[in-house]
Amino acid sequence: MVLGDKITVEALVEGGKASGGPPIGPALGPTGVNIFQVVTKINEATQPFAGLKVPVKIIVDQDTKEFEVEVGVPPTSALILKEIGAPKGSGTPNTDFVGNLTIDQLKEIAKAKASELSALDMKAAVMTISGTCVSMGVTIEGKPAKEFQREVREGVWDEHLQEPLREE
What we know:
Layout: E1 2-3, E2 6-14, H1 24-28, H2 35-46, E3 53-61, E4 67-71, H3 76-84, E5 99-101, H4 103-113, H5 122-136, E6 138-140, H6 145-154
Parallel strand pairs: 5-6
Antiparallel strand pairs: 1-2, 2-3, 3-4
Helix pairs in contact: 3-4, 4-5, 5-6
């Protein structure tokens, strides 16, 4: 995609393992930018998501050969699977559970997804993430996700959900 004298390349890369090969190298080759520098920056920025596919956007200024890298966040389901160490969600999520998240793991996922959530506080974000757990067959604190959500609505987890969702 061309924006004036800037070109944007979007790709899905494995966290910390981008390379000069496809899809990045061939897309950036014609821009004249230093591909090694771009790949190094992508790998530094995506290292926290090692083992997950991460959306990245590389914006190259055609004239100056300067570039910036924007890193997206993996899907909520991928973050949950990484935390529980399961290859995939349950085919029958209401009866077969594939793993369990602690409240702290749930909050970490909520923080990672904060930029993409419409939630304004940790409680709302945790409710959103726990909704994904319902459809994946993942329990929270040893309880079915719907039961956990009911407890959150009733205020049982309020003291655990006081911290800010985003850094101020």
